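Posting here for the record, re: 6-O-phosphono-alpha-D-glucopyranose.
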Amino acid sequence: MCGIVGYIGGRRATEICLAGLRRLEYRGYDSAGVAVMSKGKLVVRKKVGKLQVLADSLEAEPIEGAPGIGHTRWATHGKPSDANSHPHLACGDKIALVHNGIIENYAELKEQLMARGCVFRSETDTEVIAHLVGKYYEGDLLAAVIRAAKDCEGAYALAVICEDEPDVMIAARLKSPLVVGLGEGENFIASDMLAVRPETDQVYVLDNDEFAKVTRDRVELFGPEGQRIEKEPYVIPWDAAAAGKMGHEKFMHKEIHEQPGCIRDTLAGRVAAGMEEISLEGLTMSEDEIKQVQRVLFTACGTAYHAGMYGRFVMERLAGIPSEVDLASELRARDPVILDNTLAIIVSQSGETADSLEGLLELREKGAKIGSIVNVVDSAIARESHWTVYTKAGPEIGVASTKAYTLQCLVALMLAVRFAEVRGSKPKAELEELREGIARLPAAVEATLENEQQIVELAEKYQQYDDCLFLGRGVSFGSAMEGALKLKEISYVHAEGYAAGEMKHGPIALIAPECYTVAIAVRGEVYEKMLGNIQEVKARDGKVIAVAFEDDEDIKQHVDDVIPIPRVPELIAPIPVQVPLQLFAYHVAKFRGEDIDQPRNLAKTVTVE
Ligand code: G6P
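Prediction output follows.
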């Protein structure tokens, strides 16, 4: 978490840094700060609160000059405060540094530095690195940063400037993401490509243990021993507009509405009506290897975990392979047993989530083949995997994940169908029907979006409830979990996702007139059982909203409200089912006046364990 930017060039650094930080605010928004070389002096401004507080301060009292570095914080060590905000200073306030990540041995380092007389002004782990750079500084900032990095264990992305070298910025990366953007007579540092895309489409993506010396006209890359490295710049494949709101009030709203287009992009060249097989360019396993898989283990965090729940279901159902899904943090806590021919599939939007990444490394170490479903191209999880199939969501900025989720489900489904094709585990006609259903998904999702006004009315009706239950069964269980997560994370309504069959073992005690239930009741294998659960809720005076196929007239007699979705094969239904649930959460949160794109305490990319 935390976002970093840096600018060197002829423009006012604070303006570029603020614009970049706005695009990185999804990484954290507890406090923000900048340090700028202004008229030969290092000037620092940092403010607790959202970025706007810093922006207002800079507008009232601008800071001229460049280079400059900026930071938006998600607090780990030390509560949000001006003092704990970055940048941190050292070496007689000559050196300023911003950091994303965690220095695990900071306590030990801090003790050593204090014994040498360093005075600490914050409770952060970051200040330790600033003092270490100060300790090793002998007129060469790059050398000092490389030396300081050797003492640090953990994860970091750093940007550093120094009053004695006013024409240089240093960037360093270990485990936390960092890119260097290439301009004309100016250059940029940022936590991700989003932040620099309006300025350039050419970036160096730093690898672990890489350092960059950035001046106005030059970017030089170095390895951990200070040796020069050459690499090709990466060309960002989407334009700057993709990272804007494009007329929508909130990123989340824009991202929900982008889903039909993103599904088309994710399907392009992979599935189309009439195609005899799915073609997944990232899946590099041979047919023999696919046939040998004896166990599939989906691993992820948050929303991506719910996509993994769906992945587990369809993989087992279609490919006939015993499949499981695990929270990455729990998997690691368990020291899992990995048998031969296990395929682990890591699901992640950012490709940077610390628990998912560490889980991947452990599974790989234990001999699993690693596949991944990732959105951010070339991110750490993609790079550490044996193969990756990308979701083509483009940038997702709203903290609550929407389009990434439906695309993760879609890719998991395509993988399951592909495995079934290769393994011959399902009749050809059934697979053909699924491929056709998949090809029709953009239209099905478009149809659910056209129904937004009805969702607004429902959200208005239910906005005052503080408790709610989402029920799903079978293939819809993950949908219920994800529906509840969406609602709770942006509207702060207490929402629980539950397997409908488990309701009578506990949650039924919650049913009362002041708690409503959202039941996923698409016709199929478990429809009758779900109707039974709905009756149990109604018998206890609970209100029920059902998500059901639009041609299902019966359901209306059993529930208070129906959210209709177009009819698709049952196994595919979780994709269109989720879209109105995303809209419902969005509009409930809007009616309740919450900050939808930046919900309290959350960050989009969780790079701490
Ligand atoms: C955070 C985000 C979630 C996301 C989860 C996993 O909690 O707020 O939206 O699902 O991290 O992130 P990943 O990038 O690995 O999908």
